[in-house]
Amino acid sequence: MRVVVTGAAGDIGRTLVPGLIELGHDVRGIDLVRPDEPWADAVVVADIGRDERALVEAVAGVDAVVHLAARAAESDFETAIDSHVRLTHRVLEAARTTDVGRVVYASSNHAVGFAPRQALLSDRERGRPDGFYGVGKVAAEALCSLYHDRFGMQVACLRIGSFRDRPVARRHLSTWLSPGDAVRLFGACLTAPDLGFAIVYGMSANRRAWWDLAGARALGYTPADDAERWATEIEAEPASADDEWDGRYVGGEFTRPHAD
Fold this sequence. Notes:
By secondary structure, the chain is α/β, with parallel strands linked by helices. It has one domain: Rossmann fold (3-Layer(aba) Sandwich). 36% of the residues lie in helices and 16% in strands. The chain has helices at 11-22, 52-59, 77-97, 132-151, 172-175, 179-191, 214-218, 231-235, 241-246; strands at residues 2-6, 26-31, 43-45, 64-67, 102-108, 154-160, 162-163, 176-177, 197-202. The strands form two sheets. The protein has a seven-stranded parallel β-sheet with strand order 3-2-1-4-5-6-9, sandwiched between helices. Strands 7-8 form a two-stranded parallel sheet. Helix 1 links the parallel strand 1 and strand 2 (26-31). Helix 1 crosses helix 6 (179-191), helix 2 (52-59) crosses helix 3 and helix 3 runs parallel beside helix 4 (132-151). The longest helix has 21 residues, at 77-97. It is globular.
């Protein structure tokens, strides 16, 4: 497939672009900066929050857009709305006006951050954001739903967990998404024949999983990694009060009292 990845220079982008290329996709990226990577020539440098023409030109003629670009941290309300809602609207509109039929959106587990930890949280859990970052993600998921229902766009919203090279905290034993599984998950959403509109969790095959991966597996996602490999090392350190709190809710530290 011909795929555009917004936010290609970010943490997930720098994993996803080469990963999708390795899967055989024709990938171009777009970001504020050009990453120092062997595939950097595939990245268009532009501010898609301001330069609508550059965004439209980037997505014209492709089969799908992977939308990663956003401020990946808590912020004030206005910043969250700009980064998640207005920017996602721009991407969806660019896809609609250029007849791109599929968008894969990087949402977050913080969209349901105040959901209490339970055996396996359903991907049908209502939005329970744990901050303005989560509010932005919930609102962007709603925009994606609108563009599916009104314009027939195929959209997947991925409530991504703890994306990093390896787990380093107790919470990660349940919420980790490995780089390899991130490529597998996004790749499955790009090629699922009947995507429709889907909200699924982005997590590896962790045996201590908090979230139900049935929806993602139905799209063809087959995770290969498990955070349990690092459990002995992580649990060698005594649990702290922060560890106890971070295990109460999906959003972890975002739900602590006075979290900033």
